[in-house]
Amino acid sequence: MSNSIKLAILGLGTVGTGVINLINDNLNELKRRSGRDIIITEVGTRRQRDDIDTNIMQNSDLMAIAASDNVDIVIEVIGGTTLAKDVIMQAIKNGKHVVTANKALLAEHGNEIFAFAEENNVHVAYEAAVAGGIPIIKVMREALAANKIDWLAGIINGTGNFIMTEMRDKGRPFADVLSEAQELGYAEADPTFDVEGIDAAHKLALLASIAFGIPLQFDKVYCEGITGITLQDVNYAEELGYRIKHLGFAVRRDSENDGDAGVELRVHPTLIPQDALLANVNGVKNAVLVNSHPLGQTLYCGDGAGAGATASAVMADVMDLVRVLGSKDRDDQSNTGHHVPHLAFIPEQLSDTPILRADQMVTGYYLRVHAYDSPGVLADITRILSDAGINIDAILQKPAHKVGQVPVIILTLPVVESQMNLAIEKIEKLETITDKVVRIRLDELA
Amino acid sequence: MSNSIKLAILGLGTVGTGVINLINDNLNELKRRSGRDIIITEVGTRRQRDDIDTNIMQNSDLMAIAASDNVDIVIEVIGGTTLAKDVIMQAIKNGKHVVTANKALLAEHGNEIFAFAEENNVHVAYEAAVAGGIPIIKVMREALAANKIDWLAGIINGTGNFIMTEMRDKGRPFADVLSEAQELGYAEADPTFDVEGIDAAHKLALLASIAFGIPLQFDKVYCEGITGITLQDVNYAEELGYRIKHLGFAVRRDSENDGDAGVELRVHPTLIPQDALLANVNGVKNAVLVNSHPLGQTLYCGDGAGAGATASAVMADVMDLVRVLGSKDRDDQSNTGHHVPHLAFIPEQLSDTPILRADQMVTGYYLRVHAYDSPGVLADITRILSDAGINIDAILQKPAHKVGQVPVIILTLPVVESQMNLAIEKIEKLETITDKVVRIRLDELA
């Protein structure tokens, strides 16, 4: 068994159990592909489990497992950012490679963790941390390695996508669908991380770093959730040929032609064209669209969560590490130089490209303005937009739904947010305007 | 410059020029990611070119380049299966790694080439050979390495997809769209390889091998092109909620429940549900849908051809090989054990799973039957199908388009082809039937 790879799984929740099941189900495939025996030697679990193979040592002391001589690779699937960090740092210190699905931990402490891993000549692999079973980390770090990535747009939170899909398909309001998502187990009892976009922001921070070669900067991600999206806006968007999806965007702005140079990191509801493939990724599915030079647009779609999808990503990382740990012919355990850099670019080449503030960002807009149905109102609004240099792409004036009040829907071409802020401030000061202007970003994905 | 990686590009057509342009455009990204200088030292071209950097040696003797001491990696983009094979074998013999976009060569001679590469401790990388810029080879060999792949379905010929898209969108007949595709440069003057499905069959042979761990068996791929698809069938399919795409399928049949055990390798027009993402991949785009356990379905979509997309895939392979050739810290030039096996599974683990004959394959069917409009005809047809154990999923009887003749459209559930052959033979013998039965395969992609 000197030829075997010894795994420890820390945490036996959905994902940990999924990894055990995958190894049991696909033992033969794993061996046929890697030429090695991949075995679980230890699992970290708070309480003793009687459904685990008796050859596997169960231990509630995760720090001990992370230092065990009987482990080559530590799989961290306990979640959270405290104990998870401690055990990962412990594993690294003890020369173990680490596989983790922990997006929150990496988004917030990844720079420190990756630097410590490099110091100790081990790898921290994290395919499962973003978009579940979709191999977007491998694709961006390796398959697109020769491209200059211009931007990416991703449906990277399955709960949010389920809610947006149901609202559109069934005409059900947000709160209603959220309750169902909670019943189905798609959303947590406290859904804040999902519906406020925080989970998506964690993943976006990771994607942006490997896209552009910048340090992780979760704290600079502009983050807007879906709690404010109404059925009314969902329907107006459809009427205009668009669909509202909750998306994460990482955009590189090289020139100052249309705003300041730097990187936009943003997570927000977005109108995208109905006929874009991304607009047709429904339910809990995730998808990431990457635009790069010279490749152009490529799309990656699949399950973003669940035991099977996450276990697939975790074990793909293990299979990569098996090669790092030496092939069947070799036993060079320290061969880490050949691996892909943690953030796709070699550490000394990470750049300090500035992250743009929200008011510097450039996007199109969907505006819903409520006005008294008086003759000059549309002229007033369009004049304000035009004075601010904002180009209108479409206007939809709906019949009055309250007495004397009409909703006016306006789609604009891309504009710097600070300009839009000023224009909206002026519009809201018009005497004919009855409510706050509702605004949702819009992207043609072109 | 001992830290540099020296490339030779054999062939300066669209792809070779694309690779040169990519390296020029993205020099900084390549360096930032790999930590190495990636330089072209030699190019193989029949006639001297004056638009090539003077530091690059031009040589019409490709065999000499493939043996040159000044080259680490040979990029073969001349195409064809004769000279291309000679130069690749020459490069391998001389210890060079090879990157090729040559699907025909690999589909037909890959077993021999890969074995020779393993003997000589080098790699032959071929991401660009299938689906252009979509990293489907890397995804299946590495990202899905822990999964058991059940089946895959791919739009892997852009010309064919363009023709099918135009026929549906514009209601134009096959011959008409083919002429346009030729004018646009999407199709060759002799379009046989594209429209008869041979190009797709080459790619499918490669995909099937890395999906299931079987040797390349291009000669066993069942191959049907799109030349027989009429507008009439395109429209009936749409009316029934389906869309006709030209797809390559690789399907593993483990049990004998619904036919013989083995692998189906087939390329043919297929009705798939209109709302499947794959049905909405239009124009010259390619896409591959992979169903694996435990991951489930994932989809990969992008440009399947063109200079930029192909160069992206070629250079992704180069970036992988850069790691094999040693990192910036190491200079272990022989470190090949750490690499992914050519056909995803280690050579001694390739299996001899039988490839099923066409009459053993199991698919659903679209049938178009032309009958005299007489009372018992539908009863006769459905009785024949039912006697053969074929389940009908939908029937559409259209108004007569010739005097007294009605087209009847029948969709069936999956059935072994031999059964369908017998049933169709019987249907065609009915006195009320006026023409040959038209049949197109159907797959729910479920």
UniProtKB/TrEMBL annotation, chains A, B:
It catalyses: L-homoserine + NAD(+) = L-aspartate 4-semialdehyde + NADH + H(+). Residues 366-445 form the ACT domain. The lineage of its organism: Bacteria, Pseudomonadati, Pseudomonadota, Gammaproteobacteria, Moraxellales. This is Homoserine dehydrogenase. Pathway: Amino-acid biosynthesis; L-methionine biosynthesis via de novo pathway; L-homoserine from L-aspartate: step 3/3; Amino-acid biosynthesis; L-threonine biosynthesis; L-threonine from L-aspartate: step 3/5. InterPro entries: ACT-like_dom_sf, ACT_dom, Asp/hSer_DH_NAD-bd, HDH, HDH_cat, HDH_CS, NAD(P)-bd_dom_sf. It comes from the Bacteria. Pfam families: ACT (PF01842), Homoserine_dh (PF00742), NAD_binding_3 (PF03447). It is an enzyme of class 1 (oxidoreductase). Keywords: Amino-acid biosynthesis, Methionine biosynthesis, NADP, Oxidoreductase, Threonine biosynthesis. GO terms for molecular function: homoserine dehydrogenase activity. PANTHER family: HOMOSERINE DEHYDROGENASE.
